[in-house]
Amino acid sequence: MKAKHQRLTLVLLAVVALIGAGVLGAYALQDQASYFYTPSDIAAKKPEAGTAIRLGGMVEEGSIQRSADGITVQFIVQDGKAQQNVIYTGITPDLFVEGSGVVADGRLDAGGMFVAETLLAKHDENYIPRELEGIDMTAGKRKTETLVQ
Which of 2, 33, 109, 130 has its CA 20 to 30 A from that of 118? Predict the structure, then answer.
């Protein structure tokens, strides 16, 4: 066999090995994948109850209801087109407020309620932590005037 044919055979074997590794990796991780859904996606094609999904959208104004136990919260996530009821048991992030963005990992139950296991609150580019709200951020920047002739 010529050297050119040997190289071609090695390249083809390498490509087949890479494709095989990719297929094997995808198969192994298919149960660990969490697909991102918006409330519109859930309304259009409801995933099976118990399937791990990630829900993202905005917390609807006036929808947050805290239970008497202090750690269970129910709220509505909306994207402008559809709404999804969510229940979460745990400590909510500091940035979790009405009108803010939220990403929740969890599952739909048989009744269509999204049971969140984790909550991630999102903020916009104008976010200022509570501790820094009263601080003048421009105090260190002094304007100097010069005369140019």
Answer: 130
